UniProtKB/TrEMBL annotation:
A cellular component annotation (GO) from this entry: cytosol
First-tier enzyme category under EC: transferase
Annotated catalysed reactions: L-glutamate + ATP = L-glutamyl 5-phosphate + ADP
Organism: Nesterenkonia natronophila
Stated name of the protein: Glutamate 5-kinase
Key words, A-Z: Amino-acid biosynthesis, ATP-binding, Cytoplasm, Kinase, Nucleotide-binding, Proline biosynthesis, Transferase
The PUA domain, residue ranges: 277-360
Domain of life: Bacteria
Family: Belongs to the glutamate 5-kinase family.
Gene3D superfamilies: Acetylglutamate kinase-like, PUA domain
Positions that bind ATP: 14, 173-174, 214-220
InterPro entries in alphabetical order: AceGlu_kinase-like_sf (IPR036393), Asp/Glu/Uridylate_kinase (IPR001048), G5K_ProB (IPR041739), Glu/AcGlu_kinase (IPR001057), Glu_5kinase (IPR011529), Glu_5kinase/COase_Synthase (IPR005715), Glutamate_5-kinase_CS (IPR019797), PUA (IPR002478)
Amino acid sequence: MSFTITEAKRLVIKVGSSSLTTVDGGISVQALNRLVDACQKLRSRGTEIVLVSSGAIAAGLAPLRLDRRPQDLAAQQAAAAVGQGQLLAHYSRAFGHHGAEVGQVLLTVEDLIRRATYVNALRALEKLLALGVVPLINENDAVATAEIRFGDNDRLAALTANLIHADGLILLSDVDALYDGPPSAGGSPIAQVARTEDLNGVTLGPRGRAGIGTGGMVTKVEAAQIVTAHGIPARLTSAANAERLFAGEEVGTLFLPRGKRRGARSAWLAHLAHTKGRITIDHGAVSAVAERRRSLLAAGITEVTGSFEAGDVVEISSPDGEVRARGVSSFSAAEVQIMRGKKTAELAQELGEDYQRPVIHTDDMVRVEVAA
Ligand SMILES: Nc1ncnc2c1ncn2[C@@H]1O[C@H](COP(=O)(O)OP(=O)(O)O)[C@@H](O)[C@H]1O
Ligand SMILES: N[C@@H](CCC(=O)OP(=O)(O)O)C(=O)O
């Protein structure tokens, strides 16, 4: 399978700080304009794009007379608050040259963890796209604390691609491809990653220019894996290559989809929802649930920990403690405690017909990949 950008109807394009900044760390208007021109070519062919752009902190440095990225969180928040406004102004002006509007959407991890706000974010993005607006996403750095940060925009972009059912995720950085080792140490470029095993032996180093990017290659590969597990291909290359890429050239590294396309709800279950407890199951249940994709029945449950209510998300683990799935429990922890180990007929007899249902229905579960 390949990924033909020119045929994609909807793309999430993530650009890193390192591609938008000058050598002294401020925002490069020239680089930003080039990127917007390239994006606009895609849009003029009818492709919807959602732009996840880093660079708020970098853009806030000059106005605050800072010559480098500050170390303390409050100063980063302040730089981002000032810089995000500047970043939006640059993008609005650049897209405005092409007659296009930009709509800013700042997200915190909480927005995507709580189902109500996650559905809300989806609705806003869908509406913006329907109105022909370019959604410009960044983390809401001004209020993000160390604990609630997405950590990096690579992950945010991947989650957004899953959320809006994008046809592809484009990761634009300052490096033209994934290399089998840090490019500075003389690695070679990798054209395609078809399976997780293709990454065996690949050294993923930290960020490039000191103090500019945040995640290095690790978070980009993780982002690619988040989308490919949901049937969405990803391509990684440099922002300088954007024009060639959007014209259909196969530049950079292609990450092929591994799973079939899944709904936004399973992406939420797999990557975002907070788990409230853990259900440990026996070997027979592991094979039924994780391998044969059956619903989880009370009979296979050996242990329940945590305190959860019906409707909460729990982890399902094997007897040796390995998490094999996550799912929405139909019963509370107290109920599962009473039900565990009992057969369906027994449950109906002892507790009533309501308790014959699976503890977690297969449609309410996502399986966790385990290393071979
Ligand atoms: N195996 C690798 N292949 C490619 N780049 C790598 C690798 N390991 C580390 N890097 C570094 O990761 C950097 C990109 O990450 P980062 O600076 O966080 O970028 P961004 O600002 O685009 O998010 C590159 O400049 C490169 O030096
Ligand atoms: N949200 C921050 C950047 C976070 C981030 O992930 O940066 P990068 O690794 O350059 O994509 C900002 O706008 O400065």
